[in-house]
Amino acid sequence: MAKLIITFKDKTLQEVELSKSITVGREVGDILIKNPSVSARHLKIEKNGNIYTLTDLNSTNGTFVNDERVTSKELKSGDMITVGRHVLKFDNPEESKEETFDLGFDQDVGGRTMMMDPSKLRAITQPQTGSVDVTQKIDPSRKESAKLFMMQASGAPKVIKLDRGSTIIGSSDTADIQIKGLTVGKIAAVISKVDDQYEITYQSGFARLKINGKQEDKRILVNGDKFSIGSYNFEFRTEL
Description:
Blueprint: E1 3-8, E2 11-17, E3 22-25, E4 31-32, E5 43-48, E6 51-56, E7 63-65, E8 68-70, E9 72-74, E10 80-83, E11 86-91, H1 118-125, E12 146-150, E13 158-162, E14 166-170, E15 177-178, E16 189-194, E17 197-202, E18 209-211, E19 214-215, E20 218-220, E21 226-229, E22 232-237
Parallel strand pairs: 3-4, 14-15
Antiparallel strand pairs: 1-2, 1-11, 3-5, 5-6, 6-9, 7-8, 7-10, 10-11, 12-13, 12-22, 14-16, 16-17, 17-20, 18-19, 18-21, 21-22
């Protein structure tokens, strides 16, 4: 039976069998994750036979599957679902991992030698013009993850790599980037990675988000953007 393996900071907290459709949230759901970065009703997973489909329930910080923000997605065994700072690994041992290659003939030939279409045989055995070398794993044009430079009064700035689907900034002990101050919200802002873009969104606290000196609630960050929350100053940079 399929199941979710719930982890936090690489520590397994719980395993839940998916014998039916379920919902996940901070306040309402079959699985409750008591973390301020998780919405009251965050996502649902619908079971239809051996097919499981995840749907985000308009959550504030989004739902990520394999670091990609999704609204709806059919799950495959091994998928890693990120909800706030928790990771839910989807495991489905019943999912067939075997793939068949259709050669265009009936497989049952009663023990006789199979007669193949010569054109299909040539297509299989001969190299194709312009074919892709499957051993080439690295795209040289692929960009590295963006980085935040957190300015400090003493010494060089602290460098934070934005290599997750979402990065939480705030005073909470569970924040990815912890900043202090009476006016700083537990979750002051969240940086979400959507495709190749990074969007910062103000969340809570009297210390408002200011980007390039202007108060804003949401913005797609571009290379060189400077923003502040309370007395904390950051610079966003992308590098090749």
